[in-house]
Give the backbone structure.
Amino acid sequence: MDTYIRFVHSLSRLCGTVATVLLITSIMAIIHMVVQRYIFNLSTSWQTEYVIYALAGSTFIGSPFVLLEKGHVNVELLPYYLGPKGKLILAIICSVLSLIFCIVIFILSCEVWLDAFVNNHTTGTLWNAALWKLYIALPIGFFVMILQYVADIVSLITKREMPFPPPVLAEVIK
């Protein structure tokens, strides 16, 4: 099981790297668009669309890394009043519900991606990018999220990781 968890953590880190690259290329595309439009007085065609799809892709592909790093927002009012066993049970329930949600979205996103692939849907713009290439970020991101949730649930059940760590003293003082 440790091998699975290490593999999923590596995969989630890779997703974080891909998301970072997509963000950086989005910034570069915006800079290119500004230079092309306002310095050289040329029209732009693909940059805006690329930025939209790259940012959406980085959001979905980067989400497993955020889950791995526990970078999502937690409302810890209820866990504050629970003991260690209650926190563990709450974390498992929340993780299982989140896993179910990710499975549903994964299945639906696969259907959308497959439809775009089979029917060769395009953006219909001047760039006219194939939508299946753009939509692939959803199934990839949610598939790795599913793997990450399974790893998190296994870590909770086997007590490799405890949920809702106590706040650091510096955070309490603020």
